[in-house]
Design brief:
- Helix 2 packs across helix 4 and helix 3 (48-55) packs across helix 4.
- The radius of gyration is 25 Å and the shape is elongated.
- Helix content is 59%, strand content 0%.
- It is an all-alpha fold and 145 residues long.
- The chain contains eight helices and no strands.
- The protein starts with 17 loop residues before the first helix and ends with a helix.
């Protein structure tokens, strides 16, 4: 009689997870949204079941969003972005690019570059001064309004 499995296959260093083995392998690549959703979920160390609980959904629903949903609702996108603490543009794979005027950098950009070259302790001093100034200025604008 042929042995169909060996006991050594069950004695791996990696723990067995039902979620890792759930379902059959996909026949097609997951939609781009689903791929990014899975990447962000895994980066947060969440299983599909854990993530489903945070969203108030089932594990099967998360599997659907990750593997088959081509056009998720805005409600789901917003909720996923909130739970995973991810920018919606990142989740959707879109980049929000602001158009800049061609030409040399502004004076503020030059100062920011110089500030980034300072040691951390000096950057902190400048940042505290700037924060204090901005706070004082914004409070003055609020009182004037």
């Amino acid at each position: 009689m042929q042995v169909l499995f060996q006991a050594s296959n069950f004695l791996k260093d990696e723990p067995y997870s039902v979620e890792d083995m759930a379902g059959r392998p996909p026949l097609h690549d997951a939609p781009a949204f689903g791929q990014r959703l899975a990447i962000f979920r895994k980066a947060r160390g969440l299983s599909q079941t854990q993530f489903a609980k945070l969203l108030g959904k089932t594990r099967e629903a998360i599997d659907y969003y990750e593997r088959r949903a081509k056009n998720p609702s805005a409600e789901i996108i917003l909720k996923v972005a909130e739970v995973l603490n991810v920018d919606i543009n990142e989740l959707l794979g879109t980049e929000h690019k602001t158009q800049r005027k061609p030409g040399p950098p502004s004076h503020l950009q030059e100062l920011t570059e110089k500030l980034s070259e300072l040691p951390r302790n000096k950057q902190k001093v400048v940042a505290e001064m700037l924060e204090g100034f901005l706070e004082k200025t914004s409070n003055g604008h609020k009182q004037a309004a």
